[in-house]
């Protein structure tokens, strides 16, 4: 067994043992309905609204035309090779991400990683390295952990791919983006990330985040990785916010896929 495979196997075993003991010591409650015995109960998990199977081939945003790009990608194609998300950022998945991020419900990291593992396996992506979207030093100090890294580390170990939380770093303390539009977010994040050329040259990299809102963070991370000499960049998130004005109506989730 290679050193990487051994490290990944150990990571999975330690994670599983740790959460089994934690569940025994402190029986979990569902992050969404408070039901006893589960960090995320089956009922709430199955109520998550998945993104449509008909999405932009480049950025993963739900569209109506199979095999086409969305208007934004047609206008200005992003530099990443492909971006995908698993669910619509609403309902139980939104509550779960909030609990993972702000309520220290760390068990949700590996739970939310599982559907992403399936997606990577089906994607055909050749990946050398998995990285989480990094937090700034000050955010890391106040929160104590990076929620995206809890997802990405478990995903990389399960797929037996190398993982790094150090090769892509956030070097600028950006102001909160919640109320900014897409252009402001992109400018706010310009030069916010640095990627290490020594380890990234000619590598195919998968970036993991919990939520993609406008895509500005992923695009800026992609720029930093390409500047460092990385070859192909793939972006994957648990959830995607459905924000574009002309597409705000119903009909973009797999629950309503029969409409297409
Ligand atoms: Zn529940
Ligand atoms: Zn697109």
What would you note in describing this structure?
With about 260 residues, the chain is an alpha/beta fold. It has one domain (about 5-250): Rossmann fold (3-Layer(aba) Sandwich), CATH 3.40.50.2020. Helices cover about 40% and strands about 15% of the residues. It contains 10 helices and 7 strands. The strands form 2 sheets. It has a 5-stranded parallel beta sheet with strand order 1-7-6-2-3, sandwiched between helices. α1 (about 5-25) crosses α7. The radius of gyration is 18 Å and the shape is globular.
Supply the CATH class: Alpha Beta
Q: What's the total helix number?
A: 10
Gyration radius from CA atoms, angstroms: 18 Å
The whole-number mean of residue pLDDT values reads 88
Write the layout of secondary structure elements.
Layout: H1 3-25, H2 42-46, H3 71-75, E1 82-88, H4 91-102, H5 108-123, E2 129-132, H6 137-143, H7 147-159, E3 162-163, E4 168-170, H8 182-188, E5 193-195, H9 197-200, E6 204-212, H10 216-227, E7 232-240
Parallel strand pairs: 1-7, 2-3, 2-6, 6-7
Antiparallel strand pairs: 4-5
Helix pairs in contact: 1-7, 5-7, 8-10
The structure holds zinc ion (2 copies).
């Amino acid at each position: 067994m290679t050193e990487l495979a051994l490290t990944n196997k150990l990571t999975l075993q330690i994670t599983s043992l740790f959460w089994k003991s934690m569940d025994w010591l402190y029986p979990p409650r569902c992050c969404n309905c408070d039901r006893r015995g589960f960090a995320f109960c089956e009922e709430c998990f199955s109520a998550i609204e998945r993104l449509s199977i008909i999405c932009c081939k480049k950025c993963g945003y739900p569209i109506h035309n199979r095999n086409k790009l969305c208007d934004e990608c047609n206008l200005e194609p992003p530099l990443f090779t492909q971006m995908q998300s698993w669910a619509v950022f609403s309902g139980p998945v939104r509550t779960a991400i909030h609990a993972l991020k702000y309520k220290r419900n760390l068990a949700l990291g590996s739970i939310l990683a599982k559907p992403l593992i399936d997606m990577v396996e089906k994607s055909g992506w050749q990946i050398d390295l998995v990285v989480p979207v990094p937090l700034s030093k000050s955010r890391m100090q106040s929160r104590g952990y990076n929620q995206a890294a809890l997802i990405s580390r478990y995903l990389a170990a399960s797929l037996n791919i190398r993982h790094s939380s150090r090769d892509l770093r956030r070097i600028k303390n950006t102001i909160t983006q919640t109320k900014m539009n897409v252009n402001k977010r992109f400018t706010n994040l310009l030069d916010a990330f640095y990627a290490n050329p020594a380890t990234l040259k000619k590598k195919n990299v998968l970036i993991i985040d919990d939520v993609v809102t406008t895509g500005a963070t992923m695009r800026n991370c992609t720029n930093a990785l390409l500047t460092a000499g990385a070859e192909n960049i793939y972006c994957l998130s648990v959830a995607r916010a459905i924000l574009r004005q002309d597409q705000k109506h119903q009909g973009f989730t797999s629950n309503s896929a029969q409409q297409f």
